[in-house]
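I am writing to request your help with a piece of structural work I have in hand. Thank you for your consideration; the sequence and its tokens are set out here:
=====
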Amino acid sequence: MNVTEKAEHCPEVEEYQNIRSSEAYSTITKWSHHVNTFKTLCFIAFQIFFVLLWYSNGFSEEGLEWNRLRFLPELSIYETYTDNVYLSATDERNDTITTFSPKLSIDLAFAPRNYLTLRLEGDFRLYAHSENFKKEIYRTSLFWTLTTGKGSTFQAGARADFNSYQPYSERDDHKDYEDKEAYADLLIPLGASLNAGLRYSHLSERFKDPLFAVDEFDRDTITLKLIYKRLPATAPFVEYTYYHQDNNDIISSSLDFNTHLLLVGVQWEPAAKLSGFLKAGYYISKFDNGEDSSGSAIDADVIYRFSDATHFKINAFRRLASSTRAARDTGDFYVSTGGSMSVSNSRWDPLMMSLDITYRENKFEQKDISGETREDDFFGIGIRAKYAPRDWLSFGITYYYEVNDTNFAPAAYRANRVQASITFAF
């Protein structure tokens, strides 16, 4: 019996399915919808309040400041057309989506280098045709940052993401989940030549529907980092990461694993012509059950300022990732290799043009019933124009094409997307 079959036969799932068919569940769902609609209206009204406040009192270049508080509101409105809303090769449906995306950042300064930050974000979507997508998504974070006179930096905080994986057919439904993370990050100088960094984080993911409980996990991560800072504009470093992932073992065998990751790299100052970081190394993952995995690892995020008007941004990665069945993944894990490149030009400021290219190869380690190993090749390309006549106002239009070429037929698709946007940022 495979993982899906065992999940469908567990008592919790059967009880949940009985509840879903009851009248009580229908009543609860209606009340939940009303509550979410109320939260949506309140959140949008909160943003409109700050827009009106901007016109009445005026903002500085860094938002609205009041005593020790600083408010940074932002509101984006998107109109999107897609010819394949379900990302399906057999059930292509077009749709038009209107999205309101308010953001609010609040800083409370105890001292110039000692402050507390609260961030609130939301996406509220209206679909012209589709009825089975999640309409409201919320993200929030709270963190404290302290910098000492001797150069040490400490940050501790938490974040939460209330999101969902999309449906992949008209008969499918969205799969709601919650990501919650708490972390602490410390960077201290060790003399004139070295900085030492230590980071700990705990991440958990939970699903609303017990049918997808197999995707739930808790992950504890510890990272140690040594940085050599005597070179001009460039800082070599060594980084070691260990994490343990405790998966929700609703089947008899444990799916937990431990990963050791050693990386060597360099990072550049943000103001330099070349900025960002590049690191490469080796990882070893040991599973409680099943074959272990090991291989090279890459993580890069680099910006090259060719001129004042032309910038290149390159991202590259190779890493082990856990499978998420709610997102049409198979098996327990896969190795993901890929990257993206973006070229932007602002020669005709305030007009900026950009071209984005993305490629990703996912190799799933476990073989299916036929003995084949799944492999996905994702490719995406997009072109975007952004016009910003004011610091606080911008308009955008984007065309994006994506294709997922895979030997796992349910996950293969092609899609075209056109999006227009307007953003108010204060």
Summary: The chain has one domain: 3-425. The longest strand covers residues 373-390. Residues 70 and 107 are 5 Å apart (CA to CA).
